[in-house]
Design a protein that fits this description.
With 267 residues, the chain is mainly beta. The protein is 15% helix and 45% strand.
């Protein structure tokens, strides 16, 4: 009897030792993919105008946004001046002055595909790269609303005396009226615009259903072109423009992007 109990005890000890020496199978669950698993929608307001986008998760630290921005078509009045008249013998503008009123309006509408890259899964800070796609290369336009009849005479003068043309200087560009007395100027940029920036906030909020975010960046739209009456105006040697804002715009290669966003997690 004692021998039997001793044998059973010995077998039990050997079995327990064998179990301890066997490799333990890894039962840690694999990380679940978040590719397109969560979606959110957001609205924004900023230097691109009003925007809306749909966001989704690609990896735990990468999110994507696809959307549309549009600047409201507001109209404002600005003033430009004709070039020096003293040596032309042109008397049409002597009594009326050379100040000309222009109505300018925006036309900035862009689609966007942006990738937000987070440094880790716990932070809201991210880097952003992507592309904007302009629906129209001419992002701003202006037309003179004063001195129209006078500009008809200027057009005839310019046809007769091409070496002594009268017009409006905008940075290195020279605008001339057409036969109707109008100068339809347009500010044109590249339609595909690379973007890089930084921001705070998620396209798909993590902790709450609603979240506020902000971003800063630059989109590159290249050297602007100036059109007058649908004709490309070449750069000239006329750099004495007295309108500093438009002179700066004619050399603006990038557009600053500052947006305030409110995002909502859908699921």
């Amino acid at each position: 009897m004692k021998k039997s109990l001793l044998a059973i005890a010995l077998c039990t000890c050997l079995y327990a030792q064998a179990q301890e020496t066997q490799p333990v199978e890894d039962v840690t669950p694999a990380k679940e993919s978040v590719l397109f698993k969560h979606f959110g929608v957001a609205t924004s307001i900023g230097s691109n105008g009003f925007g809306i986008d749909l966001g989704t998760t690609l990896t735990p630290t990468v999110e994507m946004r696809v959307g549309w921005d549009a600047m409201s078509r507001f109209t404002t009045t600005t003033h430009l001046y004709t070039n020096e008249l003293s040596n032309t013998g042109m008397a049409l503008l002597e009594n009326e002055g050379t100040k000309i009123d222009f109505d300018a309006r925006s036309n900035m509408k862009t689609g966007k595909v942006l990738i937000d890259i987070f440094t880790n899964t716990k932070t809201d800070f991210h880097f952003t790269v992507g592309l904007f796609f302009a629906s129209n290369a001419k992002v701003a336009q202006a037309t003179n609303v004063s001195h129209v009849e006078t500009m008809q005479g200027v057009y005839e003068w310019n046809q007769q005396y091409p070496q002594e043309k009268i017009g409006v200087e905008v940075g290195p560009y020279f605008l001339e009226p057409d036969a109707s007395g109008h100068m339809h100027a347009a500010f044109s940029v590249k339609r595909i615009q690379p973007y890089a920036g930084i921001g705070w906030g998620h396209a798909v909020p993590k902790k709450n259903r609603l979240a506020v975010g902000i971003e800063f960046g630059l989109k590159y739209w290249g050297k602007p072109d100036i059109y007058c009456n649908d004709v490309l105006v070449p750069e000239s040697s006329m750099n004495g423009s007295n309108h500093k804002v438009l002179k700066t715009l004619s050399n603006l290669y990038v557009w600053p992007v500052v947006n305030l966003r409110v995002a909502c997690r859908l699921f």
